[in-house]
Amino acid sequence: MYKLTIEETAYFCQPDETVLDALLRENVNIPYACKKGTCHSCMVRSPDTPPPEAAQAGLKSTLKKRNHFLACLCHPEQDMVIKLPDQSEFYTEGTVVANEMLNRNTLLLIIAFKDAFEFNAGQFVNLQRPDGLTRSYSIANIPQQSNTLEFHIRRLPNGRFSEWLHDEIKVGDSIAVSEPRGHCFYLPERHEQGLLLVGTGTGLAPLAGILTDALAQGHTGPIYLFHGSREVEDLYRVDEMRQLSEQHENFQYMPCISGKHVPEGFIHGRVNDVALASLTDLKGWRIFLCGHPEMVNQMKKMTFLKGAASADIYADAFTVSPT
Ligand SMILES: Cc1cc2nc3c(=O)[nH]c(=O)nc-3n(C[C@H](O)[C@H](O)[C@H](O)COP(=O)(O)OP(=O)(O)OC[C@H]3O[C@@H](n4cnc5c(N)ncnc54)[C@H](O)[C@@H]3O)c2cc1C
Fold first, then answer.
1. 49 with 136: CB under 8 angstroms?
2. Which of 28, 61, 183, 305 has the greatest CB tally within 10 Å of its CB?
């Protein structure tokens, strides 16, 4: 058992417990969301002692050097003094400038900033409520489109954060937004390479950013976007995507419905099955997978088995927070 000291109060971390679980058990108010090392919302600092290497997985080297680490990945190897992050260190205040429905359960939220917000299309940020509740959301626009970020937020029944955004947040409200995170974005290289984009539900958000970026940067290889849901009412931006595919010869849009009622112009089947049946050889392709964790994990394996190099497979699984 190791001692964790925060502002001169001592807490104890049981064997096999992470620092995050120990602090939550002790009722310390620490932001967190995914508990898997993805969202980085539980980043803290150990000013005096280097944290275990595994607790710094995925952090920038500048943060590593300053002994930042992820509390959810940290199994202490000695007693630690811990500094909780100062809110202003990683968060910027933005103002909501638009909130409207994209379909029956998906909200379009646009947040504006005073200064330029630097990001790559397809990355995600953490949004934070004034009480500290934090969730990750993908950016759906590209950086060139002004000092705004666009999000697509699905309402989860009894979801604490998504219902708050749907029901309470209004135009003019301010909201805390973290630095951009994640590696699922388009790099303007190998313009002739095939791009396969597969998403479920609001997985379209990062894919829309990646697609817009690739087209704007003059990507010449074939680009396939497969967007799926159970019912047609849960797809969105269908007309815009169809229009884009008319404007760009190399872009194919495949809206997929897994439920029984499939209107004309839509493909019947689960999005992963349809994508894999349509493209049988993925050697040399770049793959982007976003949305339901099961779909993302299955497609990572299958696209690799169909020839894509693992370094060319980018994925964002929309894991929900454990209850
Ligand atoms: C990298 C990343 C990017 C993300 N991007 C987006 C995005 O662009 N858009 C978006 O909408 N979300 C996105 N998410 C998911 C988002 O972060 C939240 O997890 C989601 O909004 C739910 O949060 P909540 O507080 O509303 O729900 P919570 O209060 O956290 O409730 C979650 C709980 O709901 C239950 N639950 C899980 N799935 C379902 C379901 N299908 N139906 C009913 N109940 C369920 C589970 O018990 C779960 O514990 C992303 C997640 C990650 C990790």
1. no
2. 28
How many separate domains does the chain show?
3
Full-model pTM: 0.89
Q: Tell me the longest C-alpha to C-alpha distance in the chain.
A: 66
Is 323 within the bounds of a domain? Answer: no
Residues 311, 209, single domain; the answer is yes
Nearest in space to 307 (alpha carbons), one of 273, 269, 281 = 281
Residue of 156, 161, 316 to mutate, ligand 1, most atoms within 8 A of C-beta? 156
Backbone angles phi, psi at 111, to 5 degrees: -115, 130
Q: Which domain holds residue 264?
A: 195-317
In the chain, the percentage of residues whose pLDDT exceeds 90 is 85
| Closest residue by Cα to residue 300 from 194, 198, 221 | 198
Question: With 70 as the cut, is the pLDDT of residue 145 above it?
Answer: no
- Asked if residue 140 has its Cβ within 6 Å of ligand 1, the reply is no
In the numeric block, the tokens 């793959």 are attached to 287
Query: Do residues 232 and 149 both lie within one domain?
Result: no
* Residue 294 structure tokens: 């099961």
Place of tokens 């058992």: 1
Residue 154 CA: which ligand 1 atom is closest?
11
